Amino acid sequence: MNPKERILTLLSGKVPDRVPFAHCERHLPRGEKERLARNMGMGLLCYRPAHVESMLNVEIVTRSEPNKLIKTYRTPLGELTEVISHGIGYGAALFGRDWKGVQPIRTQFLVKEPNDYKVLKYIVENISYKPYYYPVEDQIERLGNDGIVITTMPYEPMQRLLVEWVGPRIFVDLLKSREQVEEVYYALEKKYEEELFPIVANSPSEVVLYLGNIDSILVNPSLFEKYYLPTYKRCSDVLHSKDKLLDVHMDGKLRPISKLISKAEIDIIEAFTPPPVGDYPIDEALSLWKDKIIWINFPSAISTALGPRPKVVKQYLLEQLKRTLPSTRVMFIASTENFVPEDNMMAMAEIMEKAELPLTEDLLLRIQNNI
Question: Which sign does the torsion angle of CA 216, 234, 127, 47 carry?
Fold first, then answer.
């Protein structure tokens, strides 16, 4: 099988020839070893939007300073300002990252006091979504059989408030000004349901990513149950009517919300990160989430932080493969967050090239003896 066939077979509920292995395109600098790893079967995951988001009746003024953007949103109800810090190459490098693959960071959020929510609600009510399928269509054609294209959506409404617009103060506001927070939340949920979900459901790709970045340190069980499960249900209903799969990026500590995740109408848990970075072993996750496919992110503490350590990487990967046996509902991803040292990426590819299905302890032992 080629990488695309391997991944799509997994997604269809059937068993591919071996455990799928892929890398996120945005974290994969091109070069000799990258080409070699792909020739060994490493697929590509390419993320593309199928929509254009516009803010009507809102004037956006951007001022640039060294490694900093100051954006002011002017509305009839007032104005809000955010400050974004970024590395060298932001705007020129891949997918909104700098030359080192690092995303920009908001150092000031739009909402700084409770009265700002009325301005933010006005902005949300004036967001418009229109279909634009070219990025997905073009990448599907270019990619061929080398992997799959995933249609991307923005963050879930509460996650967008937390990550993009309000920041940590949202936890105080949910206690003291919940009604104002929820007015924005429900306005954005309504906008998604009426405009965005139907657009992405008609995208030509098989999988749609609801952005996520879920971590129970920030999204506790009560928040997850009240503000996340309902939007997953509404989104999946629309996607499933068009035979699309719902993918959510859950790369944080998940044990406190693991039982709620089992109830979530999600098809794919993307970027699941085992210990030592995550807090939930993959064998426990597979046992609890019986109806879900899990895309496993190789923890950066092993793949990246220690530099080139191919032997360490191989041993860790074999241990994780053993935990997934018979390994028919998983795919391994070299990294969903970092550039990986090339020697470590090759170490992964060498193991995964031999990870034939159905995977057994005897086969893993033979692979280990050969390394």
Answer: positive
Give the DSSP H or E segment for 136.
Answer: helix 134-143
| pLDDT in the model for residue 102 | 80
3-class DSSP state for residue 314?
Answer: helix
- Residue 75 CA to its chain's centroid (Å): 32
Average pLDDT of the residues in 354-358: 97
76: tokens are: 């009839």
* Axis crossing angle, helix 310-324 with helix 361-370, rounded to the nearest 10: 170
Which pair of structure tokens corresponds to residue 281? 């072993």
The helix (run of H) or strand (run of E) holding residue 33 is: helix 32-39
DSSP line for 57-117: T-EEEEEEETTEEEEEEEETTEEEEEEEE--TTTTTSGGG--TTSPPPEEEE-S--STTHH
Q: Which residues of the chain form CATH 3.20.20.210?
A: 3-55+127-370
Domain covering 3-55+127-370 assigned CATH 3.40.920.10 in the classification: no
The whole-number average pLDDT for the span 130-138 is 98
The answer to pTM > 0.85 is yes
Sequence-distant (6+) residues with CB within 8 A of 120 are 80, 110, 111, 165, 184
Rounded CA-CA distance 356/43 in Å is 16
